[in-house]
Q: What sequence folds into this?
């Protein structure tokens, strides 16, 4: 059955659920490329198949423009038929009834729907037909390459274009009337569409720091968030947003000066920044509203910023990026957050008898210990408490040197242990030994006399020197007394 109607607003014959690019209206002489559909955007390696829904018939031209066209609805669609798929679309909330004048040519009703206000109905119609267990023979199948997929040799009409990964597309060919090709209908471009990405656009992130995966207080991390702007389904406004949620322990820029936003490699400044810090969790949420980006469909957005690890960091800091899906109006999480670990180590201070010793002062040094470390809450000097515990926190994997810089009163002041501490990428801690042999298995001792020093290393050498001096002194005393006694006997 043929049913004529006037197309109004956006040309429904060029409806695309994944996105539609709009262009200037033109009319040209018919040629071999007139009956083609070109899919742009995220198409490389994807296979697109075109199925005819209905042929154009009886186009009406006025003032060098097509104002109306008839449909010859295909009857080859089974389970569901085009009529049944249209009923599925009508059932989408709020449910409606297909007007009687469209009975028998429900495709004309589908084509009359608004791409903005009725997007859910159009999507339901296309999804139902894509899932049909009995489809007509496809008109043609092509594989996208170099950013385009050109489906040629088509009968002029309205098509469902499917691909194995992405959303189905509703798109019409150009309209041919009296040997002239009309590429637009009421201002909407025909025969051209953008392919929506196979899955909702998701951000990818990377960070840079040394060593990778572990950080110290004061380290500056560079985060990069990326996402692809999808095709424009309506050809009008296309809102795009990104959101970044940083855990406590990260200090982010608070103004646009601290962020760089690029689209397709060019700096993009027409965005607004909103940032909040949760009083309880201390998470920082930053939202980037890029506004209307319909002119950038298919291009990549890159957001870069630096964050500093601060004193609120405990054992890790993480960052999760989200990208806005304009089709659902919701944010989509990328997946596993970027997580960077911070480590700590502790040891115990004791006297020679194994009792906890308070008041011993230790200082840490190393490649990760600098002004930035202390400026962001890092403590480089710690004094043992009544339990003898000494703890250094907020450290990346690496090697550190710990030196006792203050010995408690009553203990040898010149015997100050100094030892290395190595933290591997997994946080495992290895203690080195000191020259006095006073550090062993995470316990550092102080002694009151050299006789309490372990008889190993420098301590053992020290004991030998002391004993040698004592023996030498005794020998000299015996020699003096012997010489004196000999003089007395001679006299």
A:
């Amino acid at each position: 059955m043929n049913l004529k109607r006037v197309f109004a607003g956006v040309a429904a014959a060029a409806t695309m659920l994944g996105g539609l690019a709009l262009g200037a209206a033109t009319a040209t002489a018919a040629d071999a490329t007139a009956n083609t559909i070109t899919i742009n955007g995220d198409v490389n390696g994807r296979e697109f198949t075109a199925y005819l829904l209905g042929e154009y018939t009886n186009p009406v031209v006025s003032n060098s423009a097509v104002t109306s066209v008839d449909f010859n609805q295909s009857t080859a669609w089974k389970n569901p038929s085009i009529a049944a798929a249209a009923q599925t679309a009508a059932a989408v909330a709020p449910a409606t009834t297909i007007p009687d004048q469209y009975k028998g040519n429900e495709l004309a009703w589908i084509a009359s729907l608004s791409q903005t206000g009725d997007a859910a109905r159009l999507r339901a119609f296309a999804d139902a037909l894509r899932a049909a267990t009995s489809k007509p023979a496809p008109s043609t199948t092509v594989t996208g390459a170099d950013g385009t997929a050109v489906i040629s040799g088509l009968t002029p009409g309205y098509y469902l274009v499917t691909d194995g990964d992405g959303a189905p597309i509703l798109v019409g060919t150009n309209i041919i009337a009296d040997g002239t090709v009309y590429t637009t209908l009421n201002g909407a471009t025909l025969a051209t569409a953008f392919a929506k990405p196979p899955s909702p656009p998701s951000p990818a992130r990377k960070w840079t720091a040394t060593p990778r995966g572990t950080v110290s207080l004061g380290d500056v991390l560079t985060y990069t968030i990326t996402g692809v702007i999808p095709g424009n389904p309506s050809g009008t406004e296309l809102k795009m947003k990104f959101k970044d949620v940083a855990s406590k322990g990260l200090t982010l820029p608070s103004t646009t000066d601290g962020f760089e936003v690029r689209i397709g490699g060019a700096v993009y400044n027409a965005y607004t920044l909103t940032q909040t810090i949760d009083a309880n969790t201390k998470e920082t949420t930053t939202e980037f509203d890029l506004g209307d980006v319909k002119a950038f469909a298919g291009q990549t957005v890159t957001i870069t910023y630096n964050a500093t690890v601060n004193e609120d960091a405990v054992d890790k800091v993480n960052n999760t990026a989200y990208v806005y899906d304009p089709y659902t109006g919701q944010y989509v999480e990328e997946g596993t957050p970027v997580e960077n670990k911070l480590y700590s180590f502790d040891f115990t201070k004791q006297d020679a008898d194994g009792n906890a010793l308070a008041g011993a002062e230790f200082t840490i040094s190393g490649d990760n210990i600098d002004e930035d470390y202390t400026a962001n809450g890092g403590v480089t000097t710690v004094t043992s408490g009544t339990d003898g515990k000494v703890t250094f926190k907020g450290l990346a994997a690496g090697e550190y040197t710990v030196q006792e810089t203050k010995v408690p009163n009553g203990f040898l002041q010149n015997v100050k242990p100094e030892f290395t501490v190595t933290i591997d990428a997994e946080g495992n801690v290895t203690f080195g030994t000191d020259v006095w042999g006073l550090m062993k298995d995470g316990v550092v001792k102080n002694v009151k006399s050299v006789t309490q020093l372990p008889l190993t290393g420098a301590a053992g050498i020290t004991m030998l020197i002391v004993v040698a001096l004592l023996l030498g002194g005794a020998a000299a005393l015996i020699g003096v007394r012997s010489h004196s006694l000999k003089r007395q006997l001679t006299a």
About this structure: The longest strand covers residues 47-62. The helical segments are 82-90, 106-112, 119-130, 371-375, 457-490. DSSP finds five helices and 35 strands in the chain.
